[in-house]
Here is the input.
Amino acid sequence: MYKIDLPSEEVPKKWYNINPDLPVEMPMPQNSENESQLENLPKVFSQGVLDQEFSMDRYIKIPKEVREIYMRIGRPTPLYRAKGLEEKLSTPAKIYYKREDTSPTGSHKLNSAIAQAYYAKKEGVELLTTETGAGQWGTALSLACSMMDMDCRIYMVRVSYDQKPFRKSIMEIYDGEVHASPSKSTEYGRKILEKDPDTPGSLGIAISEAMEDALKDEKTKYSLGSVLNHVMLHQTVIGQELKKQLEIAEEEPDVFIGCVGGGSNFAGSAYPLIKDKLDGKSDCQFIGVEPSSCPTLTKGEYKYDFGDTNGFTPLLKMFTLGHDFIAPSVHAGGLRYHGMSPQISLLVNEGIIEPRSASQKEIFESGTLFAKSEGVVPAPETNHALKVAIDEAKKCKETGEEKTIVVNFSGHGLLDLKGYAGYLENNLE
Here is the structure.
């Protein structure tokens, strides 16, 4: 089988919550000294997602309205076999990729954007404010808010704002209001610009700006595209579909690979498979791949830190490079984050997930090879997963092992061509 589709009715009816199945208890968020960030959470987030954030229910029902929109935007997404890539590599391995790039906005991000906009709308929220790195999350939330007849304000990390101007155009088509971050629209943005007018910005700064808006207006809530438990939860529609598709293909995954920045696409596709491993039903290897220029899991510390730069968020137990970290201006903007999902951090710390890193030049090399083999141009973020998938397939060629390698193809790269041009012209940093 080269392509495995599921009918619309197979869209999952519940999200999977990994919290009750974690091998050790999840460390809870904390206030910093003399501050009360936890008390601000209801001011910032809708109650619907806050309830999910701390839930210990293994499965949480997907509202009918959300599930219907999932079907409208093309869920379930297809699973493809990368036969062309296998032949290019002359490997005995079988490589499958779950195509989240087929969504209207080109990535997996809509799965959570729709849910978060739905819960906010139910509570009478008029404006959702957020951050975005490469623009996939800002694009998804803009569309979700448009569907729910709400306003959306996006703080886009300055370097990505400059690198990817057509991302801004798409957000504006969906009526999103886009600001380069740090901006002059917030107190915190102005403070950062006073210190360093030429800063490339960071996701931590953009989060601070978006949260400042939410704290100032009771009709405004903040929406996060990754990191927190409820975002991981919403994305598990991917992994639940994937399990059914692998069963149809009569495949047991030996290696699962996804890119990791804040963790949402990896968690959503891997958690239902990880449950099988935690239950003793699978021996699959799970690999999360990050940029070597932003090595949160491979070189960061597992400790409590803020999710944003200004300290609006509670302290989260996670792998972190420090909340003041400013990543180099690589093209994988969705992976330039100082921290990591607390759930994924715990699973890495417990040895369930293996972290790896890859450089910018080698990920574009892998993405170009994939495009020539399969015809699909991957996002720079997705290229990190593909790079390691290619490495693993080459190992199989050396050993003769017929492993089944599964990749979450988190997004397309058709709005990331400046990065590809830099690779083809041999002028990437």
